[in-house]
Design a protein that fits this description.
The chain has helices spanning 5-9, 17-23, 26-36, 63-80; strands at 44-49, 52-57. By secondary structure, the chain is α+β, with helices and mostly antiparallel strands.
Length: 81
Amino acid sequence: MGDSPFARAFIVQSKDSVGAKETLNGSVQAILFEHLNATNFNPVEVAIGPGGAVFLSGLTAEHERWHDLLDLARRIEAAVQ
């Protein structure tokens, strides 16, 4: 991801660096930064692959946090299409 604010804030692992840069376009990076800086930040690990995406989070007991994760997933899905 080069030497960028995104690369300093997130760990990106991929066997296909070109594909990773295409998938993690400016829109996806902005969405992830917004989530990271949200007041009610909910830590999540996102794995994006050819068949879809997986969002991993710890214990999420509050109803609002589920909605935050679903919103994050929907926004990322729209940004990579």
